[in-house]
Amino acid sequence: MPVAASAIYFLNLRGDVLINRTYRDDVGGNMVDAFRTHIMQTKELGNCPVRQIGGCSFVYMRISNVYIVIVVSSNANVACGFKFVVEAVALFKSYFGGAFDEDAIRNNFVLIYELLDEIMDFGYPQNLSPEILKLYITQEGVRSPFSSKPKDKPVPNATLQVTGAVGWRREGLAYKKNEVFLDIVESVNLLMSSKGNVLRCDVTGKVLMKCFLSGMPDLKLGLNDKIGLEKESEMKSRPAKSGKTIELDDVTFHQCVNLTRFNSEKTVSFVPPDGEFELMKYRITEGVNLPFRVLPTIKELGRTRMEVNVKVKSVFGAKMFALGVVVKIPVPKQTAKTNFQVTTGRAKYNPSIDCLVWKIRKFPGQTESTLSAEIELISTMGEKKSWTRPPIQMEFQVPMFTASGLRVRFLKVQRFDFYTLDSTILSKIQCRVFKSLCN
Amino acid sequence: MAPPAASQRYPSPSQPSGKSEVSDLKTQLRQLAGSRAPGVDDSKRDLYKKVISYMTIGIDVSSVFGEMVMCSATSDIVLKKMCYLYVGNYAKGNPDLSLLTINFLQRDCKDEDPMIRGLALRSLCSLRVPNLVEYLVGPLGSGLKDNNSYVRTIAVTGVLKLYHISPSTCIDADFPPTLKSLMLHDSDAQVVANCLSALQEIWSIEASHSEEACREKESLLSKPVIYYFLNRIKDFNEWAQCLILELAVKYVPSDSNDIFDIMNLLEDRLQHANGAVVLATVKVFLQLTLSMTDVHQQVYERIKSPLLTLVSSGSPEQSYAILSHLHLLVVRAPFIFATDYKHFYCQYNEPSYVKKLKLEMLTAVANESNTYEIVTELCEYAANVDIAIARESIRAVGKIALQQYDVNAIVDRLLQFLEMEKDYVTAETLVLVKDLLRKYPQWSHDCISVVGGISSKNIQEPKGKAALIWMLGEYAQDMSDAPYILENLIENWEEEHSAEVRLHLLTAAMKCFFKRAPETQKALGTALAAGVADFHQDVHDRALFYYRVLQYDVHVAERVVSPPKQAVSVFADTQSSEIKDRIFDEFNSLSVIYQKPSYMFTDKEHRGPFEFSDELGNISITPEASSDIVPAQQYEANDKDLLLGIDEKDDNKGLSSNNGSAYSAPSLENSSNITSQMQELAISGPATSATTPQSSFGFDDLLGLGLSTAPAPTPSPPLLKLNPRAALDPGAFQQKWRQLPLSLTQECSVNPQGIAALTVPQSLIRHMQSHSIHCIASGGQSPNFKFFFFAQKESEPSNYLAECIINTSSAKAQIKVKADEQSTSQAFTTVFETALSKFGMP
Question: Which chain B residues are closer than 8 Å to A386 by Cβ?
Fold first, then answer.
C-alpha cells in the first residue's frame, strides 16, 4: 500500500508545532512529543530520515527551517512518502509564491490546513496538482467552481478536472502572448588528478520549461539524443544527419510526457502544465566535454601560512562566453587573513562557508584567468588538525553550451488552436560541484 | 490530534498559556453567534483562525465547542472549513456536543454546491464518534450515488472511515459491494483508485473471519480485474498508479505470456519522474520473474539505470529511500552491479546516512576486477573529517579483505592506516587486523611487526584495545615484549573501565602464560587476583574459572584456553537468507529501510492490511522464524560492530564462562546449554571447532558448541517413495512457493566431486531427476548456484518444493523445503540430502 500517513506534522527547528494534521486514529496523540524527545533533541536527527519509535515510524525531511514529519504505523511505502512531501512543498510554494519557511507557514496556516485536507484523505494521497487545486482553493479564500454565481471568467467543465485525467493542466487558458522558455541545467561531478587528468566525470541534467500557452497545446521536443535520431531516420528511411549525437544513460520524464510514444517513436511529446515545470531528467557518464579546466595548487608554508593558486581556463569556442562564473575555493576553518590577486573578476573571503569566493561576470572562451592568494592561519595548539581539502566548486552559465553535448533540435507546437507562437528557446548550462583532487 | 494535556507538558516560552485567551474567545464568539450584521463573517474568520492556531500548538480549546457550532451557520466556505477542522479534532473527546454538529453537517450534505456536499461529508465521516454512526449511513449512501465525482471520491473514503469506526454498520449497509461496482464502472479515475484502496483495507481485515470477504479479496487479484487496472493505468495519477502496481505484485500470472504482457505494458513506467512509481514497477518486474532466472537477470539489467538516475536526482532523503532499495538489489546480485561501482562513490556534500549506504554497497560489489579502485577510494574516505564515515570506510576495507580479493594490497593499506596516528583510525584498524589474522594467519608476520610498535596507551577505545590485547595474547611468541605490555596493562587494572577489555586481558594473560610462562607468571597471578575481586560478574566468573582450571590441570587449561588456532573460513552472516527473502518480498516498504521484515517492527494488528500469502506465511512460520530473529535483534541492540561481535563469539567458544551481557553473545539455544557446554568443555576441550567442514552449521549455533552431534537425526524416518513422473507447471509452483510456509531449512556440505561436476549445472538437474526430484528453475553464477526442485509422493498428489542454493567456494548447500504435508517434510529432506550427497559420485 502506498503511504498511509497516519499524521503529518510541521515543526520549526525548536520543535514547536506549526501544523498538526491527524488522518487516522492508529497513532497516539503524543507522537509529536515522541518525535521531539527521541529524535529532535538527540543526535539522531541528522543520522537517518526514517526512524522508528515504539510501533510507529517517522519519515521526516527538513526543508529550510521546517521539519515535515509523516507518522505511519504500518509498513508504509517510504519513497512514496518522501515524494509526497516534496510534491506537497512544491504545491505550497506555488500558493505562497516563493519561500517555504516557518513564517510562510504561520502566515498561511489556514490555507495549509485546507490543502492538507484535499491532498490527502484518510492517509491516501489524492490530487496534488497545483493547477487543479487552484481552481477551487485560492489564496483569497475558497471559491467554489460549482457555485451558480457568475465569475469573471467561466471555468468550463471544472467538475471533471477536479479529479480528471489531464490532471496537470486546466482548460480555458488564454494568453495574449504565447511563450515557451526552455533551460537545460546540468550538474557536473568531476574528479581530477593533480596533473589535470579527469578521473571521473558524470552529468545529471534537467530540462526546465516555462510555458505560457493558450488552450491545450501538444508540444514535441527534439533532442540530439542518439536513440531518438536513429529512430527518426529509420522511420523516414533516410540517413541520419551528420552532427554530434549523444547517448543518454537514462531519462525520466514529467508525468505529462506520453511515455508510450517515447518508447515507440522516441519523440518527447506532451501537453505541458501551465507555468514552470521540470520536463525531464537525464544522466550521462561518457563523452562529457567540460567547458573549463581548473588547475589548483596549494602549498602549505609552515603551520600558519598557505599559498593557493587557482588557474581557470575556458576551453569552449572563442566566440562563446560564460556568464556569472563563481568559483568557491575552500580554505581551512582557522583562516585569519587572506590576500588575493586576481587577473579578472573579484574575490573575497567568506568565513561563514570557509571559502574564497571568486566571481567573474563574463568569461570569454579560450582564455584563462588566475587567482593567487596568501592565507594566514591562526596558529593552533596541540596536534595538527588535518584539513581534508574539500572540493572546489564552480557555478556558471554558458548560453548554448552543455557539458553533455545535449542540444535542443526543435520544439514544435503541434496543435495550433488559434494562436501563433512567440517562442523563445534559451538553452543554458549551470554546472555545479567540481571536485578536484589536488596534489 | 495531540491531547492538550500531553502537549502542554512541553510549553515553549513563546506560547501563551491559553486560559484567559480561551475564555475571551468564548465571549466574543457568543456575541457574534446570532448577529447578522454585514462584515460579521470577517470578524468570525479572525476568531476562528485564533481558535485553530491555539488548537495547533496544543492548547485545549474544546471549551468553545458550543460557540463554534453556533457560529457555523454561514455561507462562507473558509469559515465552514475551519469549523469542520475544529469539530473533527474535538468531536471524539466531546461525543455529546458532537450531536449538535450532526444537524448542520447533514444539512450541508444536501447543499446544492458539490463542494459543500463533499466537505460536509468528509467532516461527518471524520467525527469518529461511535454512537453517531447511524447518521452516517444515509449521507454516505447518497454520496456514493452523487453525480459529482468530487463528492463520490470523498464518499468512498468515507466508507473506509466508517468501517474503521464500526465495521458491522459498514457491512450491514452493504457498502463494500457498492464500492466494488463503482470501482469497476465509475468513469472517474480518482473514485476508482479510492475504491481500490478502501476495498483492499476492508476485505483484508474482514478476510480473517468471513469466507466471503476472503473470496472477494482473491477476486481483486483475478485476471480481469488486474488487466482492467493495468490497461487504464495511464489515466490514474501517480499515487494511484503506485496503488495499482502494488496490487499487480500480488497477481499470479497464468503463464509466461501473461508475464511478458504485463512487463511490456508497464515498461514505460520505469521512465516516470516519480520515484515511488518506478520502485513499484521494479517490484512488479522482480516478483513476476522470480521463477524465470534468466529473465530475472535481464530485469536487473533493465532497472539498474532508472534507479541510478533516481539516486542522483532529488533530495537526499529521496535518494536515501531509493538507495536502500538499490542496496537490497546489490546484495542480492552483486555481479550485475560490479561495473557500476563508481556510482556508489560518496560525494563530498552528501549526508552521512547516504554515505553509509554507499559504503555498504561498495563492499558488496567488490570483486577481483574492481577491488583495487574501490579500496583506493575507500582509503580516501578514511581521512574524512566525518569520523563516523571514516570509521565505516575502514570497516568497509576490512570487509572487502575478508571477501578474499587482493588481500595482499589491502593488508598494506590497513597497516598504513595505523601510521596515520589518529585514535579512531587506529582503533578501527586494530579490530580489522585482528579479524584478518583470524582468517589469514599467514599474514601474521607482517601485521605483528607493525602492531607490536603501537603503544597501548594511545588507544582509548575498548574495542580497539581489546583487539590489541587479543593479538598480544595470541601472538605472544612473536612479539618480544608482549608479556611486559600485558603486565603494564594488568597493573592498571583499576583504571580499565571496560569489562570487555578486562575479559580480554584475562584471556591474553592466560595465552601468554602458556607460551612464555616464566615471564608471564607474575602478571597472570596479578590478573587472576584482580579478576576474582572484580565487581563485574563475568570478569569475576572468568577469572575464577581460569583459576580452577589451572589448579585442576595446566594442560587441560591450555587445551581449553589456547587451542591451536584454525583459520576462520566464513564469518557468520547476521541475517538468514529466509529473512532476506522476506525483506525482498516486502520491497518498496519500510522493511527495506530497516533491513528487517515487517513483522519485526509492526504489531500484528498494525500490520499493513493487504498482505495475502505473506500473512499466512508469517503465522505458520513464527516458531522457527523466532529463533532467527533473536541473533539479528541482539546485534541491532547491543553490537553494531559485526566483526567484533563474531570474534567474541569465537572466543566464547573457547572460554564461554560467560553467557551474556557484556559480550552480547547471542544465546541461540536455551540457557540450559551453558551447563552442558561447560561439561563438554571440561571434558573435550575446544576440539569441536565450528570451522571444521563437517559442522556445516557454521557459526549460527555458536553456543550450541558441539551441537552438530547432539541433535541425533530423527530415528529412521519412514522411507518416502517419490513419483518419478511428477509434473507441476511453473505458475503453480510459484503460487505454492508463495503460499506454503517454510517447513525446513537445512545446510549440508557437497562433496568435492559434486562441486567439480557443477561446472555444468545441468548435470545436477539430471542427477536429481534420477532420484525423482525434478528441477523447475535454476540459475546463478559461480560461486552461487540456485535451484528450485519439486517432487511428488508416489501414492498421492502431495507436493514437496525445495530451494537449493549451492556455494561452490565453501562447498555448502542450503536447502529450504516447503511441503503440502508438513509431517513428511523431514523424510523428504533426508531423501533430498541423500540424493545430493551422491552427486558427482561415479
Answer: 383
Burial class of B53 by CB neighbour count within 10 A (0 to 12, 13 to 18, 19+): middle
pLDDT tens, position by position, B328-349: 888 888 888 888 888 888 877 7
Instruction: Please give the C-alpha separations between residue B100 and each of B60, B72, B96, B110, B720, in angstroms, as whole numbers.
Output: 19, 11, 8, 17, 72
Please state, rounded to an integer, the average pLDDT across all residues of chain B: 75
Residues paired with residue A221 on neighbouring β-strands, in sequence order: A268, A411
How many alpha carbons fall within 13 Å on the CB side of residue A151? 12
Confidence check: pLDDT of B546 > 80: yes
The span from the CA of B654 to the CA of B410, in Å, is 29
H/E element, A297: strand A292-301
Mean pLDDT over A235-252 rounds to: 62
Query: Any chain A CB within 8 A of the CB of B190?
Result: yes
DSSP result, B662-722: GGT----S-TTHHHHHHHHHHHHGGGS-TTSTT-TTTTTTSSSTTTTTSSPPPSSPPP--B
Comparing CB atoms, the residue among B12, B191, B586 nearest residue A163 is: B191
User: pTM to 2 decimals?
Assistant: 0.69
Whether B484 has a pLDDT exceeding 70, the answer reads yes
With left for phi above 0 and alpha for psi between -120 and 50, is residue B611 left, alpha or beta?
A: beta
Q: How many CA atoms lie within 13 A of B41 on its CB side?
A: 11
The distance of A420 to chain B (nearest Cα, Å) reads 30
Quick one: angle between helices B275-288 and B316-332, nearest 10? 10
From A176's Cα to the closest Cα of chain B, the distance in A is 31
Say if residue B597 is preceded by a cis peptide, omega within 30 of 0.
Answer: no
- Strands ordered across the beta sheet of A408-413: A268-270, A219-223, A408-413
Interface contact A121-B154, CB threshold 8 A: yes
Where residue B824 falls among pLDDT bands split at 50, 70, 90?
confident
With contact defined as beta carbons under 8 Å apart, do B86 and B51 qualify? yes
**Pairing relationship of beta strands A434-436 and A179-192 according to DSSP bridges:** parallel
Across the interface, whether the CB atoms of B352 and A46 are under 8 A apart is answered yes
**Residues of chain B found within 8 Å of residue A16, distances taken between Cβ atoms:** 12, 14-15, 57
Partner-chain contact A283 B190, CB within 8 Å: no
**Among chain A residues, CA nearest to B603:** A55
| CB atoms B272 and A253 under 8 Å | yes
CA gyration radius, chain A: 26
CB A90 within 8 A of CB A98: no
The ipTM assigned to this model is 0.71
CB contact under 8 A, B272 and A255: yes
- Chain A CB contacts of B112 below 8 Å: 148
Q: Are A241 and A230 in contact (CB under 8 A)?
A: no
Cα angle B539, B540, B546 (rounded to 5 degrees) comes to 90
Q: How would you label A106-141 residue by residue, b for 16+ Cβ within 10 Å and e otherwise?
A: eebbbbbbbbbbbbbbbbbbbbbbbbbbebbbeeee
Please determine, for residue A158, whether its predicted confidence score (pLDDT) is greater than 60.
no
Residue B519 in this model has a pLDDT that exceeds 70:
yes
C-alpha cell at B33: 453567534
The least confident of A378-382, B60-64, B451-455, B554-558 is A378-382
- How many angstroms away from the CA of B608 is the closest CA of chain A? 5
Report the C-alpha dihedral over residues B522, B526, B528, B531, rounded to 10 degrees: -160
Task: Give the Cα-Cα-Cα angle A195, A201, A202 (nearest 5 degrees).
Answer: 170
Classified as helix, coil or strand, A321 is strand
Q: Does an H or E element contain B164, and which?
A: helix B149-165
Residues of A in contact with B235 (CB under 8 A): 165
Beta carbons of B81 and A200 less than 8 Å apart? no
Q: Does A388 touch chain B (CB under 8 A)?
A: yes
